[in-house]
Amino acid sequence: QDQLAESGGGLAQAGGSLRLSCIASGRTFSGYHMVWYRQAPGKEREFVAYIDWSGDNISYSDSVKGRFTISRDNDKNTMYLQMSSLKPEDTGVYYCNRGDVWGQGTQVTVSS
Predict the structure, then answer these.
(1) Rounded CA gap, 12 and 67, in Å?
(2) How many CB atoms neighbour CB 50 within 10 A?
(3) DSSP classification of residue 10
(4) Pairing outcome for strands 34-39 and 10-13
């Protein structure tokens, strides 16, 4: 059974940093592209960052470009999201995604 599990969320001050992790189990991790999404209170889920199976092709939403870094370690079946220069508007539940598989989400709260 394919599963994704996020961790690393928490409370940070504006300007601070957090690193999220997403551990995958089930199908071979290295064969799939991966995506981070987030959902702020009262808003729809939105795209944050994408990384292909090799890690060579990456893209970001305009709202996080230059502040967040997506990466993956295929040997550890893990994807990461390094978040820096955090803003209160980064607050939300962050989800990792692979095709039709979603993690349970991890809460990120940024105080001003």
Answers:
(1) 15
(2) 17
(3) E
(4) unpaired
pLDDT tens figures, 102-112: 999 999 999 99
| Mean pLDDT along residues 49-63 | 96
Tally Cβ neighbours within 10 Å of residue 21. Answer: 17
Q: How many CB atoms lie within 10 A of CB 69?
A: 15
For 41-99, give the DSSP string: TTS--EEEEEE-TTS--EEE-TTTTTTEEEEEEGGGTEEEEEE-S--GGG-EEEEEEET
- Spell out the long-range contacts of 28-35 with Cβ–Cβ below 8 A and sequence spacing 24 or more: 29/72, 29/74, 29/77, 29/78, 30/74, 32/98, 32/99, 33/98, 34/72, 34/79, 34/96, 34/97, 34/98, 35/96, 35/97, 35/98
